[in-house]
Amino acid sequence: MGACFSSKNRKNARTSTVMEAIISDNSSFEYTNLDKQTRLKYLNWTYLHLAVFLSQKEAVESLLRQGFDVNAQDFHGETPLHLAAVQQNELIYSLLIDAGADNSIENKKGETATFIANLNRKSFSTDLPIYSDSPTKNEEDSPAKNEEDQLFKYDTESSPGKSKRLN
Q1: CA distance linking residue 61 with residue 56, whole number of Å
Q2: Phi/psi at 164 (nearest 5 deg)?
Q3: Is pTM beyond 0.90 here?
Q4: Fewest Cβ atoms nearer than 10 Å: which of 17, 31, 147, 150?
């Protein structure tokens, strides 16, 4: 058999096709029968990491429906949720949280996705929504102090390691 028919080459061709579909935001691409263990070279990303990094909402939704590991960590310990936080992508951040992303996972620097989101919020803009690791009882019982507080608030006290959207 020629090299072009080896299983490794078929897997590489499939990986390239999936990557191209994610990169080009090909909404008609069928993200099915993908190997959930496939890791992209260099950063050790899953397809889900790539889709989040490229802000491809439809690809993220499809990969989540297929059961891709929402808490998979790359070489730096970053999960797809970390990448969404770095990009301040509230929509994808919410999709990941709703799919069970654990916002208490720390990267190799000891940073959670929530920490990164808050750090970026302070660095780049004052009108971005707040990401909250664990709201205090007073915050839960009282109305939001301002519009920002109301936009994006998560509860992690009810089940540690998991969070749910409060609004």
Answers
A1: 9
A2: -135, 150
A3: no
A4: 147
